Amino acid sequence: MTIKQPNSTITPFNKKLTAPLSKESIRVLQINVGKRCNLACKHCHVEAGPKRTEELSPENCEELITLIYKFSQIKIVDLTGGAPEMNYGFKPLVEAAINTGKQVIVRSNLTIYFEDGFANFPDYFARHKIRIVASLPCYLADNVDKIRGNGVFDKSIKALQWLNQLGYGKNPELILDLVYNPQLPINDKFTLTPQQARLEEDYKLFLQENFAIVFNNLFTIANIPIGRTKFYLERNKLYTPYLQFLESNFNPDTVESLMCRDQLSIDYLGNIYDCDFNQMMALPAKTASRKTMTVRDLITNGNLDLIKIVETAAYCYGCTAGSGSSCGGTLIPE
Ligand code: SF4
Ligand code: SF4
Prior knowledge:
There is one protein chain. This protein has helices spanning about 15, 60-70, 90-100, 120-125, 140-150, 150-165, 195-210, 225-235, 240-250, 275-280, 295-300, 315-320; strands at about 30, 75-80, 105-110, 130-135, 175-180, 220, 265, 270-275. The protein is α/β, with parallel strands linked by helices. The chain has a single domain, classed as TIM Barrel. The chain has an eight-stranded mixed sheet with strand order 6-5-4-3-2-1-7-8. The N and C termini lie close together (about 5 Å). The chain binds iron/sulfur cluster (2 copies). One iron/sulfur cluster (SF4) binds near residues 260 and 319.
């Protein structure tokens, strides 16, 4: 894809669209169970870390379980955090989703299995056939440790080998996907996220040859300019130039497949958003009458499809630049 030169101002994202971004029938429930994490990565949009204490309460967890049981239209329950394994409610939510025949995705940082009390998780994931989407922002140790902390690459490799031994990446029922995040820019020579299919080949070759690791898919996910990424960009006077770069590479063909269209994102308090990025920016989803909602409202209304239009902001250019970006990687063929 040709990289375009930026304009000098930023167009409001909704002005870039030919029509308001409409919501489709909800299929995916992405639940952010809390901000506690054993790592504190430089690019983290959640600003998660070991000192964060926000997590699901037992009451909010019960409501989420009711929601999962009530709506058969939910096909996927996607659990994120923080390190979701560390936050209250993870296992009860997994089990509610499995009992109702839904696919479960866990967004795992891999290193958590080496913390006290968490070594049983790989077995637990395999037993419940949970799809693991694991962060490995690069296949080179230095780059990973620079973003995520010293020793993270080695632990990630050991975790991947462990998951392979359990059948992940080999048994078709045990899916192991990896996530690539670009390095944070060091100057205004920005680049789009590399081609996903080609990078997946490189990852597969390198991890197989050097560590005998296999996995299913690589998802390339752009750095969305919010959270720690935004602080970093602001500190380096790159925030506005990065947004301008993203806008200048806006690709209208990505809009159809944006992840916010058929998912609800839920925070540890039970508030509803269109995506995890809006959640972190405190931009709640709204009904046609511009009301915000909680899990309890959805249960009371007996309707998951109360949102007609997705709330958008300038950082949506991060999802729509080039081939697009989502929690499932690029949005259109490259
Ligand atoms: S990016 Fe993931 S692993 Fe890193 S601090 Fe944030 S939630 Fe934790
Ligand atoms: S940040 Fe991305 S996923 Fe979220 S509302 Fe904007 S375009 Fe949709």
